[in-house]
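Q: What residues go here?
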């Protein structure tokens, strides 16, 4: 079968590999749609970050070259003999976190913070940029007929956004700021709407992405025209309760911190390729806090339920649909060149 594999930095190849089977506790699915994630782009331009290269990942038992893709939906076509929770024909999405179940974090239920944590589609074992995938049963969630396969491919990134909002101090009626309105930033706006934010400010240089944020209900701010910190402090009469940093740009992290009120909070969602320096006084003198999140936990069912109610709409967030044959040129390279792209979905056939 065809599969997109990471061989090294700027070295993605559409390879022909063996079609997987459903072993005892695994489920074989026909991949329907898979989204290109910012993490995939980071691996392409600056990896390896999560991808194991020298030694095999302790939970997947795999190392590069590995199949990419962790934001995907599919249809069950085969189940292993020990599988009980799904059957052939079920419509499913994948929660792609590998966790050991034995470390301190896992024992506390924080499986996304597992000492050996990895992502299916980044740490090996298979991936969504392929015709078929063999998935551990524990990673699967069924989706109702009211949630399309396209929508299903957005469950994983939407879970990142909803987890970020749930882990923050944001409460119903609060004002929030989102720095960066790429796919995750836009999904954070949706999560904030679902969580009852009264005002959402979206800071974005790209006119197209800023307009997309405004279409979702945010108040757009162009940092090329105004000082975003001054603007947010003015419009909120003192600062946002919570800001969400979703760019991975060091200077923007400082802006996100300074845009919050006394006692405000900054949530770091981005994966940074470089170190970011901050001045502690900006935190100390306002008694602000900074918090980071990675991935998600125990949130997929809530995302699927919200999607059934109309949140995280694919028709507003997906800007391009391509075939697997075109994933490198029309997918990865396009996202690096075309600032108007938000979320690109890939279909294997």
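A:
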């Amino acid at each position: 079968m065809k599969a997109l594999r990471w061989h090294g930095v700027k070295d993605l190849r559409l390879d022909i590999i063996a079609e997987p089977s459903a072993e005892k506790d695994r489920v074989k699915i026909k991949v329907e749609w898979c989204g290109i994630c910012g993490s995939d782009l980071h691996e392409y331009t600056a990896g390896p970050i999560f991808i194991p290269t020298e030694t095999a990942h302790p939970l997947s038992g795999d190392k590069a070259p590995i199949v990419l893709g962790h934001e995907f939906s599919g249809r069950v076509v085969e189940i292993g003999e020990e599988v009980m929770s799904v059957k052939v024909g079920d419509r499913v999405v994948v929660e792609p976190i590998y966790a050991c179940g034995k470390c301190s974090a896992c024992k506390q239920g924080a499986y996304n913070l597992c000492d050996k944590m990895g992502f299916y589609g980044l740490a090996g074992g298979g991936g969504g940029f392929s015709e078929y995938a063999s998935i551990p049963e524990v990673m699967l969630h069924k989706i109702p007929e009211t949630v399309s396969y396209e929508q299903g491919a957005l469950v994983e990134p939407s879970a990142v956004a909803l987890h970020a909002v749930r882990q923050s101090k944001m409460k119903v009626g609060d004002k929030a700021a989102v720095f960066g309105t790429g796919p995750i930033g836009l999904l954070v706006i949706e999560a904030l709407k679902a969580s009852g934010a009264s005002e959402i400010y979206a800071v974005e240089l790209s006119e197209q992405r800023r307009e997309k944020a405004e279409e979702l209900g945010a108040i757009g701010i162009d940092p090329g025209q105004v000082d975003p910190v001054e603007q947010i402090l003015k419009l909120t009469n003192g600062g946002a309760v919570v800001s969400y940093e979703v760019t991975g740009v060091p200077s923007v992290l400082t802006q996100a911190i300074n845009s919050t009120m006394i006692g405000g909070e900054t949530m770091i969602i981005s994966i940074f390729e470089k170190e970011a320096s901050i001045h502690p006084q900006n935190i100390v003198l306002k008694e602000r806090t900074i918090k980071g999140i990675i991935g998600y936990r125990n949130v997929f069912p809530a995302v699927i339920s919200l999607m059934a109610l109309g949140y995280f709409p694919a028709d507003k967030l997906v800007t391009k649909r391509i075939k697997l044959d075109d994933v490198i040129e029309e997918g990865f390279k396009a996202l690096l060149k075309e600032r108007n792209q938000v979320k690109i979905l890939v279909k294997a056939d």
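A: Context that may help when evaluating the design: The mean pLDDT is 96. Residues 215 and 316 are 8 Å apart (CA to CA).
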